[in-house]
């Protein structure tokens, strides 16, 4: 005859096994439903790529210290900050090419972000609907990577050409950008590679040949 306490223990273990089995079955069904839901929500089409547009780049030339205009077709996003980063990235890709007229390593990855802000001290006017005036001037804050700055060739002329070509390229593609400041890894840095001043705001129009004198 089986002792009473063993019978009770057997019944408890059997009940626990049944409960565990039911819980495992429910978890399995829940995971299966999530898998099916994920498959249903997965995109059936490839993500849209920004359409190509013509962008004007001011490309520095070390042989005579000039900046030449080049037009390239680029996929440009609608977001102004994204457009700014795209055109500057293309410019730096040209500088990183083997036959570059202004050799600078790093390419597009040298620009981490570009922020577009109202120019300090300028009253931002509003449209009748409450939006920002599309003609109000902007300050572009270009955040360069530390790697780009560390690998940039040192020298007053080569650093100045890089800075001015970035400023001019921003202005010709986004005319509202009237001033440009530079950061390196999100921090203010005295110079780019020992010479070009990064503590000041550059007047973007003055970096464009024919629009003003170099700053």
How large is the radius of gyration? 29 Å
Number of strands: 6
Low-confidence sequence ranges: 39-47
Counting copies of identical and different chains, the oligomeric state is single chain
Give a short summary of the structure:
The protein contains 4 helices and 6 strands; from the N terminus they run H-E-E-H-E-E-H-H-E-E. With 215 residues, the chain is an alpha+beta fold.
Question: How would you characterize this protein structure?
Answer:
This protein is 37% helix and 21% strand. It contains four helices and six strands.
Tags for this entry?
two-stranded antiparallel sheet, 2 domains, elongated, 37% helix, alpha+beta, 215 residues, 21% strand, four-stranded mixed beta sheet
Give the helix/strand layout.
Layout: H1 4-41, E1 52-61, E2 66-75, H2 80-96, E3 111-118, E4 138-144, H3 146-151, H4 156-173, E5 177-184, E6 202-203
Parallel strand pairs: 4-5
Antiparallel strand pairs: 1-2, 3-4, 5-6
Helix pairs in contact: 2-4
